[in-house]
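R.M. (postdoc): so does anyone remember the format we settled on? I'll just put the structure tokens first.
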């Protein structure tokens, strides 16, 4: 089976409090969920009917079994997710203090985590080459052997070899606790950008990748590096996408924020769905923007990923045009 979306990298158990608006030390009960940005993106795209899979690693433990079960529940192919005996499955705690305070606490990731133990020789390069979209993150470059595996995966899928309708996406997901310095991260990003057709990040992440500047300057630098679509998230001002021939800004979709942590992953999965559907970039951006807003209005990440009907319903409620068709017909793969 050719995957419409194949992601690589982080997977974890997210432990979210049932008590909203209090510090972590005051939380009395928690719920557990599938987490890890590339895994959430695969779930988000699967909610839109896409054939998705994740390349990752868990511990050989009960939490690892739980993550396999959750991936299957969400119709994500888990055949490239295997266990590492030496390290426990990573766990991420969060405090939820809307509208803007959602601190993350990573456990089981230092000195390393199972998903940073992906080895280059273990990769199915044919599956990576054939996927409609291959999605990776900057976090996957922070440590060996994951770094070499990511580079090999991208080298097996050169941008000049992509077929019409294929995309290689780099999520500029920069988390400072995993890096010695921003300069180290920028050096590693520079090795991947030549293979990437789409780059997505916020102001800080773009600054780490290509230097400080205005959103337009950062997008232009990403385009100069060879990227075909540069997506710069503008915070309360929405999101901008820029190509060599167009510049589009999608205004924010107002919602009451409950937990902002999964919004970017929902955006990513919906963005992939729109690209695979062949929609105009402006429609892709609006659809992804609304999908992200929906998850920000909900508690969890993976479990909160919206269906196409929910996304188009929110756009309609806000008086905004939805894509002409949100079904998978007309998809390129």
């Amino acid at each position: 089976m050719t995957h419409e979306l194949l992601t690589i990298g982080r997977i974890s158990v997210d432990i979210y409090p049932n008590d909203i608006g209090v510090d972590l030390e005051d939380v009395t009960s928690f719920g557990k969920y599938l987490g890890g940005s590339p895994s959430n993106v695969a779930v988000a795209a699967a909610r839109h009917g896409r054939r998705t899979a994740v390349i990752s690693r868990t511990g050989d433990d009960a939490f690892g079994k739980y993550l396999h079960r959750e991936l299957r529940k969400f119709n994500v192919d888990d055949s490239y997710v295997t266990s590492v005996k030496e390290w426990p499955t990573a766990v991420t705690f969060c405090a939820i203090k809307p509208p803007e305070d959602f601190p993350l606490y990573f456990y089981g990731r230092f000195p390393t985590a199972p998903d940073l133990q992906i080895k280059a020789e273990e990769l199915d390069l044919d599956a990576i080459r054939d996927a409609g979209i291959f999605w990776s993150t900057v976090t996957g470059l922070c440590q060996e052997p994951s770094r070499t595996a990511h580079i090999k995966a991208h080298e097996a899928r050169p941008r000049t070899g992509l077929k019409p309708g294929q995309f290689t996406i780099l999520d500029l997901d920069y988390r400072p606790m995993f890096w010695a310095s921003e300069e180290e991260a920028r050096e590693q990003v520079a090795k991947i950008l030549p293979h990437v057709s789409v780059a997505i990040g916020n102001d800080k992440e773009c600054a780490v990748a290509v230097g400080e500047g205005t959103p337009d300057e950062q997008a232009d630098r990403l385009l100069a590096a060879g990227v075909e679509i540069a997506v710069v998230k503008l915070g309360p001002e929405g999101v901008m996408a820029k190509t060599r021939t167009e510049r589009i800004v999608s205004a924010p979709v107002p919602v009451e924020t409950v937990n902002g942590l999964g919004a970017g992953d929902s955006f990513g999965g919906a963005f992939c769905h729109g690209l695979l559907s062949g929609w105009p970039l402006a429609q892709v951006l609006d659809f992804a923007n609304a999908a992200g807003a929906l998850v920000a209005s909900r508690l969890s990440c993976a479990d909160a990923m919206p269906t196409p009907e929910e996304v188009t319903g929110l756009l309609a409620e806000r008086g905004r045009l939805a894509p002409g068709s949100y079904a998978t017909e007309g998809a390129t793969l």
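R.M.: ...and that's the designed sequence above, right after the tokens. Also worth knowing: The first strand starts at residue 5 and ends at 8. Residues 22 and 97 are 6 Å apart (CA to CA).
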